[in-house]
Task: structure prediction
Amino acid sequence: MIDPRAADARVAADPTAEPIPADPTAEPIPADPAAPDPHDHPHPAEHAHPPGRELPAYGTGHELRHAAHHAAVVLSEVTAGYDERAALTDITVAVATGTLLAVFGPNGGGKSTFLKVIAGLLKPWSGHVHVLGAEPGREARRVAYVPQAEQVDWEFPVSVWDVVVMGRYPRIGMFRRPGAADRRAVADALELVGMADHAQTQIGRLSGGQRRRAFLARALAADPDLYLLDEPVTGVDPTTQEDLMRILEAETRRGKTVIATTHDLAAAAEHFEDVLALNRTVIAHGRSDLVLDRDVLSRTYGGHLLVLGGEPLLVDDAHHHDQAPGREQHFHDGTHR
Result:
């Protein structure tokens, strides 16, 4: 169990922390997304690619550089995994700036790994990844990652306010006191998620739904351009789900990009603009009505999909992960508010 105020805990649970210096022995990627692009034309939020428009296929060289300039996240032919087991194979996808994207698929299908690769927490075995125009981790201050499993000692005497302040650490540094602007950002984030009255509550005393609100507030306090959220609304009550999704929808209207995993297909269809069907590789990527497509569901879930009375029915274990190293502790809601 880890003191949530410790630097190691912050790095493990919050990749918005200061990025680790690049390894000088690492192989350089073949295309520099910062290089001049003859087709470069900036996309402000109001002129971003329409959600229904598929970004072009790409691989290396000019195509990859062009895609990196026109999307918040680009993965090209990415394979990644743990030890000798591949969790993702040949992933090629681009996520346009300002997109609200749900990633769905069977448990163990690579959803959490997908987020870790983007966050820079897991280096892919092969392929290329660009996040906000740079290598993963290079723009860590602009990325907020909220994992499904928090490596935190919930009994440690740290308040909700303290946890949300952690979202400001990349801006203020670990050993500097928060200034007025930081305190205002924390207060605003707590107010937005409906947790202002619990600011001084010890984090372990919160219900599961309240913990989700608190950690979303930490992400909001960071004021990122990219949110990476592992099942942010799974297992919460309908009111909490509506509240959190309303906040995320508002963030995308501000030009922010949200990528969230989910196993709740109804929530994906109702609340998200785009979806990505993932089962170790990309099955489909497009508008949210893909979650209603029986062929897509069959190819995504395989044996987990049953058809009863002409309607598809998913049989899946919501509490299974891509991998669980011995040091990782998984948290699931026990109560909901």
About this structure: Residues 238-253 form the longest helix (16 residues). Residues 122 and 323 are 12 Å apart (CA to CA). The two ends are 25 Å apart (CA to CA).
